[in-house]
Design goal:
This protein is α/β, with parallel strands linked by helices and 200 residues long. The chain has one domain: Rossmann fold. The protein is 56% helix and 12% strand. A five-stranded parallel sheet has the order 2-3-1-4-5, sandwiched between helices. α3 (46-70) runs antiparallel to α4, α3 packs parallel to α5 (100-114) and α4 (81-94) packs across α7. The model has no long low-confidence stretch (mean pLDDT 93).
């Protein structure tokens, strides 16, 4: 099985991926932020590096999906290829940070990749308010995230809501994380596990 966790920057995807992998004995696949050669540059100069960053993420997640497809283990994945294509890249184009030529090239590459992959068996969408995201981002203290604007997060949140409301690749569970602390509070984690158990 393939379980994927979706959500805006700071929603808690990585933490939940780790916790679910530990609880169920699943294999975790994480977003490549540590070795990503474009992230620092992107947050310093978004317009210059947006296409490079999105192509890197697309390549990285496509590699993950090919491994998942050919593997036998149940996988829990931190962020999906669909979020790149339906949320992050279109948002960069709408903000004038990716030009039409690059966006068209990106879209066509994604469509080619999409023809070779399947959606996850279950998508878990972590819904969060902007104040909660900002709090979590500041708390984890990644230098390159210091320049993320509230406007940027808000635009992403709007796209996440629109995308999740029409998601049709498989089962979806939506979890409002504003009043949950599933890292520190076992009851909160158990409530998420119970929702997963209902549909898995």
């Amino acid at each position: 099985m393939h379980i994927a966790i979706a959500g805006n920057i700071g929603a808690g995807k990585t933490s939940l991926t780790e916790l679910l992998a530990k609880h169920y004995g699943w294999e975790a696949h994480f977003e490549d932020v540590i070795d990503n050669p474009y992230l620092d540059d992107f947050y310093t100069h978004m317009e210059r590096w947006s296409f490079n960053l999105q192509i890197y993420f697309l390549k990285s997640r496509f590699q993950q999906l090919l491994k998942i497809k050919n593997g036998k283990k149940t996988i829990v994945q931190d962020r999906t290829i669909y979020e790149d294509a339906h949320i992050f890249a279109p948002n960069l184009k709408a903000m004038g940070l990716m030009n039409q030529r690059d966006f068209k090239n990106y879209q066509e590459l994604f469509e080619l990749m999409e023809s070779l992959i399947q959606g996850p068996d279950l998508l878990i969408y972590l819904r969060s308010s902007i104040p909660n995201l900002v709090n979590k981002i500041h708390k984890r203290g990644r230098d390159y995230e210091n320049s993320i604007s509230i406007d940027y997060l808000s635009r992403l949140n709007e796209r996440y809501e629109a995308w999740s409301s029409t998601y049709d690749k498989g089962k979806i569970v939506i979890i409002d994380v504003d009043n949950l602390d599933f890292v520190e509070n076992q009851d909160d984690l158990n409530s998420i596990i119970a929702k997963i158990d209902e549909v898995v």
